[in-house]
Amino acid sequence: xxxxxxxxxxxxxxxxxxxxxxxxxxxxxxxxxxxxxxxxxxxxxxxxxxxxxxxxxxxxxxxxxxxxxxxxxxxxxxxxxxxxxxxxxxxxxxxxxxxxxxxxxxxxxxxxxxxxxxxxxxxxxxxxxxxxxxxxxxxxxxxxxxxxxxxxxxxxxxxxxxxxxxxxxxxxxxxxxxxxxxxxxxxxxxxxxxxxxxxxxxxxxxxxxxxxxxxxxxxxxxxxxxxxxxxxxxxxxxxxxxxxxxxxxxxxxxxxxxxxxxxxxxxxxxxxxxxxxxxxxx
Length: 282
What we know:
Blueprint: H1 4-14, H2 20-35, H3 39-43, H4 57-65, H5 70-74, E1 76-79, E2 82-85, H6 95-108, E3 115-120, H7 126-134, E4 138-144, H8 147-159, E5 164-168, E6 182-187, E7 192-193, H9 202-205, H10 210-213, E8 214-215, H11 222-234, E9 235-244, H12 250-258, E10 264-269, E11 275-281
Parallel strand pairs: 3-4, 3-6, 4-5, 6-9, 7-8
Antiparallel strand pairs: 1-2, 9-11, 10-11
Helix pairs in contact: 1-2, 6-7
């Protein structure tokens, strides 16, 4: 009877584009995705499902060794305990963004009335959908400039049974006639400068969308300025804005909001001790 551990070892050894510890984590993810085997199942050498359909391991390993993200290979990723479909049209949700979402959920957990929320640059919909699922009092809107991203976000919302209104909208070009107000505005906008691309890995550069990643070096805070200007007009007086940031521009991003009259600005660090997100209120 075929068991999990020999297959796990074989996959790990054949993912050669990454260090062995990363290859092993990928092997665990593959066995979980294709056979429903958890890490403990693999380590205790549980039998493989008897009626399994074997994936094409050659093609899978070939894609991984080209440094295509494993999330694209299997088509999904886990974010805040929910499974989201991903594609090259959207950023792959990351743990740092989970921290931002948990902060919002904590801040609004006790609200019993409706909480209008806007997610600017929604991508896969991971922020908007998670908030809609875990804050039942929320009324969530997700904006993006990419029609392909919005198609995927709507698909994820349908799969995860989340009520989110998605719309195509560029935060750099919001009509002066727009008159809605929000208790919570959240954004994980493009914040990687073009000059930083030289230090990035192929699995990001070659497979994730430039549109969602990069800003020009001569105006790296362009989207934060737009979000701050939007919040001046459309954030309720007791509302809050949350943004994920480039670690290099923590103080500069804080200043963008301070210059627009926001008085309570808190910078939060990630698990590596780097400036990663900001909460802003009047």
